[in-house]
Queue: 4 jobs
Job 1
Amino acid sequence: MNFDIYFGKKYFISTLNIDFFLFFYYCWGFLLLETLVFPKSRRSPFSYRIQFFLPMDNDMIILKNNFYYIYIVKSLYTLISLTFFISCSLFEEGTPNSSCPDGDCWVRLYTDFEEDSNGYHHVEPFWYSQNSGRFNLHIESSPTIGRCQYNGVTVVSSRFDSDTFWEVESGLSFTFGLYNPFESLYTQQGSIIKVRDTTVTLNYFQGEIIPVVQETSVNHGVKDKMECYGWDNPKSGPTPRETGNCVLYSKRIVGPLIREMIGDTLKIYSETFFDCGMNSESVRDSISVIIK
């Protein structure tokens, strides 16, 4: 095989620019394609002898290849393939796959009540009525990284579910007062006094299944904007170009509960979605609650 690169009378191979070699690879690739596709009678004269004349400091670079160019092309294509796969692997290693800072998308669930040593939250709901007890479920999470944000705003949302529900057995009943503007009595302050109470029952809801946790999603926002954004006012301030590694927060009101649930254990599940296009992630969590 006769393959030489000359620059005047000195070898120049050690200082050639990489762009020249890329051009060299593509030229040999064209010749290989011509060799495989076209018959010998239709090949160009370049398939047998190639000469490139490139001016450089009034000298020239002459590339000569006689008879063994197919072996050279195979070697060069092997080198190109290895270079391609190595660059791809380096690119993938240098690009973060996680959508959260430090590669950790985390979620934390908690209530307004203390957690015991076994991980159960002993909750005392606020009872608006016999069948209307409620309590707050808080959720915190990590933000997304800058390239996943929209105008500096992270897009993180959570939805919830539970293993507990109750059924409306005999319809919903409402009790309210009846007033007669002509026969009712009035107080000294001029307020009308009801004549009597009446009860209305709606059988339409009989057999309805009532979940204790709404399944709709809630969006997360920055928990402490004064600390995260440097605001002087907790409700307003300049909008940052990017939300840093600040804790996000949201809340779900659990209920309605019924008093028959006192002493029962509820398991509440969450799934949090971290929006980052093709690199979006979801994290699942749960919390155990004992109704007191």
Job 2
Amino acid sequence: MPHPIPILLLLLLFRWSAVDAQNLVPNSSFEKTSSCPKAFADFTAMDWKNPNANATPDLHATCAPANVAINPAHNWNRLNPANGSNYAGLVVWTNDPDQPDYTETIYTTLTAPLEAGKTYLIEFYVAAPYLSRWLINAIDVQLTKQEPNKNPVPGTILTFDLNIRKLTTGWSYLSKTYTAKGGERYLLIGELNGRQSLQARKIPDRNESMHINTYDLAYLGIDEVSVTKTDLTETEAGNGVPAALILRNLNFATDSWKLSDETIPELEGLIRRMKIQAELQVTIDGYTDNAGTEEHNQELSLKRAQSVATYLVSRGVDLDRITANGYGDANAVGDNETEEGRRLNRRVELRLSE
């Protein structure tokens, strides 16, 4: 049966390594700049580029002049970064009949090429600052071997569906898994499939006169972009919150509940997400193989769940957002008659909810 996590946490059991080494996206939250942006079109984020000289993406920064709408505190912005002090801003759709196809994109060079046949997790956050008069229902990411320019380049385009209702209430987390063809070095973000593929909806609470004259467009903030090699699988619930996260590297040695170095990068990604999405709760379910007595396996499975919970708390996740359960050798995912099957069963699974 489930047991509550103890209040006394043994934080000294764990050490952690930085997840940045695992993320192939440099300057993933746009914090490194060549200078503080002073105005729109002053895109000074290092390691990111604008592929189209006719377009002008923006960098929103807390250091920007207070009277310019790229400052998150400005009345026409009203969107704090998901993390840190900066975020990128892109026009992704416009209602201007003179420029119906105008959009903005940005790209970066990954720190290493993608490996053929390997699975990668693509993650980032989007939101709509107040200056956006319209919302659209999708945004795209392209992974390509060829450096992007103003013309389309070959490469897989991943389309991320957007929850229009959530875009104006804060940052929304987006993720997809991608199996690499091999050699992809560039990641491009923006609206890439053409406006004919989009649905646009006017935001009802905007100042009509101001938005029609100045911001008659759909505009998105982008933050915390990540590409990591992973074995993670996600089952999406109807509200877009994963119903279950099975972290494939979160397995344990026989009769052990100690986290291995391989588990830390995947847990760090979860921690970043929980810090940005304060409404998320996590339930951690621990399991064992069938070696040992029922009583021993129950205790061991709970210790495994608690070891993950302890690590999350040590990295700043509030204890009241975490539930840890132990289920012994129940719900086996592998064959306990084989060593590989027993290894798979010595695991924890995480479930997220709002």
Job 3
Amino acid sequence: MLSNKSKAIGYIMLSAFGFALMTAFVRLAGDLPFTQKSLFRNLVAVTVAAIVLRREKCGFKWEKGNLPLLILRSTCGTLGIFCNYYAIDHLVLADANILNKMSPFFAILFSLFLLKDARISGSISPCSRRSAARCSSSSPASRRTPFRRSSVCSAAWAPVRRIPLSAR
């Protein structure tokens, strides 16, 4: 029997393979505009989310004061998806996948600088900052779109950090 650590590693690899496969299919979709590709991707995501919510018999509720932050998060997330699909269409697939996987790191940086989150400031080493700078500008072609794409995608998480845990 596999240990939990081995199962976790397997699931992470399966997830990475699935996202790489999705990226390849987005590229193979042809000359469709990136907005149309993201529309169909989001329709699939909404369908899956609705099925899960219905099966678990829980609704989708939010507090009235959190609505502007949720709208901001969804807007930034949509812009991030647009930028991701634009990168898939215009960059090498490996570069587009790397940019997609870098967005959690940029979320940490955004929460550090925009929200002044003191818990994070000690966890980012100067070595990590240098490696992120190298990764975000690894090739001449990736200097145009990638940082903006990762930044927009990461900015989607920053407003949610302000929502109290009871509302999430």
Job 4
Amino acid sequence: MTHTLEGQQKRAYFAVSAPPLATPTPTPDPNPKPTLTAEPTAPATVTPVPSAPQIVDPQGQAPKEATVGQPFRYTLQATGYPPPTFELVSGPAGMTVSNPGSVSRAAGQPSSAATGQIDWTPTAAEIGVVAVIIRASNSLGSNDYAFEINVRAARTGNQSGPRSYLPIVQK
């Protein structure tokens, strides 16, 4: 701002300030919301939806191998609720299927899967391909699973592979 005083030009600076602003005072809410304190709650229990079994093979349709005289052990899994049980529909003599139990779940959660343990020791008469059918059942239905086991002869003694012999030469 410029101000003229008796013919001379002088400059003056003015500081403009506003009165201090009042700090707003919070006013109480006329409709306060209640505050809830958190109380410990038990974990929720989820009940699986009832369903017929479906067998799951961890190796898929990959060939299963067994050796004469050696125990063959294989585990299948089946989903479904109530948890299914397993049975051998067809297979070689001496083969068994047991129901060792439910697949592990978090504490307090019911299982909707089970395992079936297949045990068998093949004999020399069973060398070749052996067909097997396993069934998983519950109150809502059943599911069959067919697979093959390739049975091979046991290795005996010196079957480590071909050998070369050098002739003995006398002088």
